[in-house]
Write a structure and sequence with these properties.
- With 145 residues, the protein is an all-alpha fold.
- The chain has one domain: Up-down Bundle (Four Helix Bundle (Hemerythrin (Met), subunit A)).
- Helix content is 63%, strand content 0%.
- It has five helices and no strands.
- Helix 1 runs antiparallel to helix 2.
- The longest helix has 40 residues.
- The relative contact order is 0.13.
């Protein structure tokens, strides 16, 4: 009976890392363009302002503009975090530590990294992370009580 050698990979090859790097660079480019658009949306004034309309409408419109700017600001902050995560993934590629789960030490699946290229947790570690948290209350079931 021939013995099967069960040698598990400890890191991705340089070719595989290059594939992930290309994916990350494309996502990073798009994310930076999106961030620029979001930043413009909340830092520049609206050229379709309500300066020449009735005072009541102007108050309502200004309230809407403030909410829109706050939402764009939150989206921009989230986008900046995404960019930082992608840039950190590029550093891990350069260090040849990309794709290694920070909890289990095992390789994260290629499928996961292709869809979430900045992932630092395997599916197994991510599931275990959620097991320790309480489930969020279901709004509808609480309304029926």
């Amino acid at each position: 009976m021939a013995k099967k050698e069960n040698k598990e990979k400890s890191r991705y090859t340089d070719e595989e890392l290059q594939e992930f790097k290309d994916i990350i660079l494309k996502k990073l480019d798009k994310a930076k363009r999106d961030l620029e658009m979001l930043t413009e949306a909340y830092t520049t004034g609206n050229e379709h302002d309500t300066n020449d309309t009735s005072p009541t409408f102007k108050v309502l419109e200004e309230g809407h503009q403030v909410l829109s700017k706050e939402e764009n600001s939150r989206l921009a902050a989230r986008q900046q975090k995404f960019i930082n995560n992608l840039e950190n993934a590029l550093v891990r590629i350069e260090n040849k530590t990309y794709g290694i789960c920070r909890v289990t030490g095992k390789l994260i699946s290629k499928e996961r990294l292709r869809s979430v290229p900045h992932a630092t947790l395997s599916i197994e570690a991510k599931k275990n992370q959620y097991k320790g948290q309480k489930p969020k209350p279901d709004y509808e079931s609480q309304q029926k009580k």
